[in-house]
Amino acid sequence: MAKTTTKKLPAKKGGAGTSVDELSLLASANKEMEDVERAKTGSQNSFITLVKGNSGILDKNNPSYIKGVKTLDYAIGSKKLPLGKELDATIVGMFKVYAEVTQKDSNNDMAKTVQFWMPDDAVQFPVTPGNNFDRQLPNGNVLQPCHWVFLYLHDNPEVEDALLSFRSKGNSVYTALEKTVKAESSSVTELRFKITNQGLANEKYKKTDYYPRFEITGRNYKLTEDGKVTKTKDSKVDAETLKEILTRQNKLLETYQGMKMIAKKNIAQIAGVPGRAALPPSKSSYADDEDEAVNF
Length: 296
Prior knowledge:
By secondary structure, this protein is of the alpha+beta class. Helices cover 23% and strands 29% of the residues.
């Protein structure tokens, strides 16, 4: 058997040289710490937008413009990626989070999302008067519950963090989807969906609002009671694709539960406990396409 040697990078004058293994260990350790720092302001995933008629994505003079996109198409604004009227997708993660949004200064202003919170941290603050869902922060911002649905896009597998987000009335669409998933599978990745759109009447404003519509088109596999993955008659995925789907699901669960997707907050500091300074209102905000994506 040939002897295996560790490559060394060129040494500094008078130095002993640095191995690739040493650098790998250091880089990996740094990445773990960096992941925690990145999570402190929330996810920077590829939000999928259901494009509305007034979206900047349709305006050639707007920086958000994406060529070829039409009203009620799906698109990922941050990647300038058109996705068309239908998504062929497998769900790889479904999570509840809270969005911290600024207060509107006037009726013409749009509330901006400044960061995201884990539910366990958000419930430390009281619900706003007359509202059973939103929660008030000392800095004047409000925490609004929202739900994230991460997708494996079969026509765009290179997008590893595709995400649909539901807030306000859109949460009822998520609830219906969650009910379907639980009734039809033991794991979300078993099912394959066609995602189009649906119009729901908004009686308050006398208009129709549009939301994603999920239709089961088949199964990727069936998980038996003894934990075996079995192929089904309508399965269209090969073993390598299924492995990638399950790997992404595993990674998402680990990052969410390990609070690397959204970091744990310092509640005492934010609440202004005596001896600590309360946080000022955040000045950061998410791009318009992301805000649009989370406000169906």
